[in-house]
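Hello K.,

You asked for the raw outputs rather than the summary table, so here they are, unedited. I folded two proteins back to back in the same session to keep the settings identical. This is the first:
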Amino acid sequence: MTRVQEHQRLRGVDLQDADAWDDPYPYLADIRSQGQLLWSDDWQMWLSAHHGTSDTILRNPHIERRYEARCPESQWGSFNRLNARAALDMSGSEHTRVRKALTTVMRPTRSTDFSALVASEVDRLLDLLSASGTQNVDIVTGLIEPLPVNIICAALNLEEGIGDRLRNSSIRMVAAFEKGQTPAEAADSQLAARELEECFLGIASTSRSSSAGRHLDSLLEQVPGSLSLDEAVANAILLFNGGTGALINALGTGLVTLLQQQELASLSTPDAITLAVEEMLRHDAPLQLFERTADEEISFGGVTIAPGDRVGLLLGGANRDPEVFESPDHFDPARHPNPHLTFSAGQHFCLGAPLARLEMQHALRALVDRFPRMHLAAPPLREPGFVVRGYSTILVNLE
């Protein structure tokens, strides 16, 4: 690591306490005010909460995604394999190869195919939700969580009813990316990664030996040409994890803000809903931290980043940069333009962004049409953690 000058160090913000921040945005504003790039002794990486800096770094081919295996391998083996073989942690030609294979499942040109499926699933879930009563309804378990779970299971051609099991393991595996895990929590993340690996390997094995060959077919038909079997499994899990968690949290946090501001009924046109979804994605980012690693020495804003240095992009802070967004802490459902970085940028721009937008738009449109007077029945309950930001429970009254 390059010698860090004292004025380049982050001061006065205790990142070790980040998991306890109910509202991280005053801390992120403090970090942004101190400089474009700052060294964190707590996290041993450079940090940026600036939009322009984060955008530039996300697009820089010499500051790349690089997975660093966790030790001991005997405990983190499944977690290491699933991350090292997934497109998210690949760069260069390997990333291009695997990402191209994934477009068979998530390519944007399939949005029209997904549209009818998403609309039908939203209506089905809302029918079930309203049939169970209209008071103190948990919109998370009734709509926000099952919608993306069921859609990604359909995209992967997974068997009906497996989504809840996979989602449970996914939550526990992804928790390993939080910075303050206890040994017990880490052990649970290791177990969850093993559960997912074993489950998807079993699905792949059954599908390949079956004459139907249906489950995971879009990926398995590329084995052994474009993908190895292990890569197909790892990237199926990546698509499940990425296609559920971030969307669940973005839809939940955005809906809470809409209800708190009593904006839901005002979204009366498709254009208004499209703009509102972008603001939901910007205002309270579902993933607060993206990490990169420099593969060569780079000078940036008076800071020298050495080869091997890690860089943490604080997307929640970047999405509230006052140099880019007027009144950035204010939720404005009509905000335009809205160049948020929630879906990343550059070669790692989220492959599932079109589908995520489609799901959020359909869900929001249906809620406006069917329950325009919906309101919060109690304060929502947040999930713990800093990196992944969302709600576990959102109780609403539908009328």
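The second followed immediately with the same parameters:
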Amino acid sequence: MTTPTRGADAALAYLRDHADEHLKGLDDLLRIPSVSADPELRDECRRAARWVADELTRIGADHALLTDTSSHPIVTADWLHAGPDKPTVLIYCHYDVQPTDPLDEWVRPPFEPRYENDIVYARGSGDDKGQLFMHIKAAEAWIRGAGGSPVNLRFFFEGDEEHDSRPSEHFVANHPELLQADICLVSDSDMADDDGTPAITYGLRGIAYWDVKVSGPMQDLHSGQFGGGVDNPATVLVQMLASLVDADGRCTVPGFYDRVRDLTDADRAAYAAQPFDAEDWAQRIGVSGPKDGERGYTLLERMSGRPTFDINGLSGGYSGEGSKTIIPAWAAAKISTRLVPDQDHLEIERAMIKHLEAIAPPTVEVTVTPIQGGQPLVTPLDHPGCLLAARALEKAFGKAPLFHRSGGSIPVVAAMDTLLGLKSVMVGFASPNGNFHSPNEWMPLANYRGGMDALVHLWDELGGVTPGELRGT
């Protein structure tokens, strides 16, 4: 393992000397309720973007800029003083957060950070404000503590990751000059476990998401008068949805698996190396055990290396207290699929619409509206960025990282690969059970401190290679 340079030692010392100050800054960011899906919090999202841009300027980054989109602003900045012979690293994170419902399950209001047992509880502490903040502090440590970074830096922080991938993908397509780099470093993922084992995420699933509405009579009808004579939209909807998955958990949409790239021996070896206890996993999420799933694949493989179909929400009819005997005029569902290489989310989107329209009875009207989509992504395990990241993580956490694929999606990362040819290394520092989209989201401060150290070491490692080595040229 390489020895840290003097610059890295100075940057690490800076982090130690300013640790209390940095935690206060983290609190300031976490207090901004930047829920991207809530139109009433649009100004708060912009406030978060402005906070990030101002902080980048304060630490010494150049050209901090807010670019308006069809939704929330994108923040970019750069520090390009390492020289043309040094790599340029693009750093991607997001400042928006998930909605906080149900509020009554939070121990403390979600935007009032709570510290307990060396853990910070707040919405965004792990996903993804905490990780974004770590990158800013690592940059500050190099620029202010060591007199300059060993690599050129570009920053790309968006505000729609939890809401809509289209604004950021449009930005990537239309502003490549702001994103020119030799490698992208992404921190929007997690560690291998809750005990400080680091991880490198080398794959992301894609996503396709739809609203489905089944409409029948012009208004709700009395079920005693019309039952047996009118197709019930709610019944039709659940029958259609149930038919989309077979007994083995495979999606039944024609062509769904045509382009699925199967797992390699290296993939399966990486899965087998994961410290995974299925019984503990089930207990943590409050279920009696894992479901039966696609044959020939382990539970871990099914949860990130294979495509899936899910119903995300159902509505329609009466759901109040007591009874109301009606045939509802309509019923609706939100559905999604997680996709793997080499599936194309636009192809899957069209195939799902065609299939749902084909299986609907002629007595109802079916409307299928695409909501969100993004492509899957895999970075080769032998990419030099992965190898350098592994060394940096081991220096910071004292143990070698594990390599895993994520079941989640970050559509803009795939867009950068497709549109810019930019490979990404994903190093995440949140705990896998950190309640990212649930009440009482949490992040260990040990991960926060170790993550900043790891980023300092990683930039040190990247500074020792040429741009061409990272690009494979």
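The radius of gyration is 24 Å.

Happy to rerun anything if the numbers look odd on your end.

Regards,
P.
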